[in-house]
Amino acid sequence: MRLSTVILPIHRWSEGQKIWQRAEDLGFHASYTYDHLSWRTFRDGPWFGAVPTLTAAATATQSMRLGTLVTSPNFRHPVTLAKELISLDDISNGRVTLGIGAGGTGFDATALGQEPWTPRERADRLAEFVPLLDRLLTEDSVTSDGTFYSAHEARNIPGCVQRPRLPFAVAATGPRGLRLAARYGQAWVTTGDPKLYETGTSEQSVQAIRGQVGKLADACDAIGRDAAELDKVLLTGFTPDRGRPLESLDAFVDFAGRHAELGFTDIVIHWPIPDSDFAADHKVFERIAMEAPAQLR
Fold first, then answer.
1. 263: region left, alpha or beta (phi > 0 left; psi from -120 to 50 alpha)
2. Relative to the CA of 26, which of 112, 119, 185, 271 has its CA 20 to 30 Å away?
3. Residues in the chain with pLDDT < 70?
4. Which residues does residue 189 pair with via DSSP β-bridges, in sequence order?
5. From the CB of residue 247, how many other CB atoms can be counted at a distance below 10 Å?
6. What is the pLDDT of residue 297?
7. Rounded to the nearest 10 degrees, what angle do helices 249-260 and 202-222 cross at?
8. Pairing of strands 266-270, 231-235
9. Strands 141-144 and 151-155
10. Dihedral of the CA atoms 93, 35, 46, 86 (nearest 10)?
11. Backbone torsions φ then ψ of 65, nearest 5 degrees
12. Where are the beta strands (DSSP E) in the chain?
C-alpha cells in the first residue's frame, strides 16, 4: 500500500514550496491538491490555483508524483485543460496524475454565474468530458461536437510524456461514474459513503466501501476488464473515522490495514492544517509518513 498526501493550496509559495519539498523528503508516493476556485470553510481565506501550484511543485521536487483530487467540469473545459495538463506533464517529466470527478454544488458550481447543475447533469457532463479529454491527450488533432463540450481541430502536440497519456484517477461511487472509471481510469478514487459521515460507524463505512469496490468490479466485468488493473485510492477525512487515524501510528496502521484488505492500493491523508477539520499533531503525521508504509507491506 502506498501513502500519499493532499496539500491544500492555501499557502503563499514562499511557504508552500517548503511543504511540497518536505512531503517528498518524508517519502510520500504522491502529493495532490484540490482543484477548486474556493472550498468550504477556506472560502474567505487564501486559496491558489491548482495547476500553477502543481507546476511550481513540479520544479521544486524531483521524483514524487503530483496531481489533483479532483478536477471537475464545474469550471473546466476539456480543450483548455488538456493543454495545461500536457504542459504540466512535460514540466514534471511525467509525474502527473489527473484526479477527476463530477464535482458538487459548492462554490465552484456558481462562480461563473451559472445555476448549480443537478446530479444528473453533472453525471451527463462528466460522461462527455472524460472521453473527450482522453482523445485530446492521445491524439494530435481532435474535432468533436458534443452536447456540452466541443473541439475544433484542437491540437496537442507533442502529447504527454507519459504514454499513451497521463493517468486518470476517476472519483466515483454511482453506476455511471464507475463505468467511466472502468473504461478510462488507471485508478479509482473514493471518500467513502457521505451518508455515514455524521452518524455512521467505522464498521458501517468499511461495509459501504466494500460494496463500492464490488460495484467497480462489476463495471469492469461488464467491459471485460480486470478490476485488479486499477489502483484503488481512498481519500481519508470523510469517513466516520474523521481525523482519528492520524492520532497515532497504531491507529493509522489499523485503519489503513482494514482498507488494504478491501483491495486499496493507496491511502491519501491531508497535510495538517491547524484550527480546521484537518488539524493533526504534525510530529505524529510525520511519523506515520515515515513508518506506516513499511508496516503495511
1. left
2. 185
3. none
4. 171, 233
5. 15
6. 87
7. 30
8. parallel
9. antiparallel
10. 30
11. -75, 155
12. 2-6, 30-33, 65-71, 96-100, 141-144, 151-155, 168-171, 187-190, 231-235, 266-270
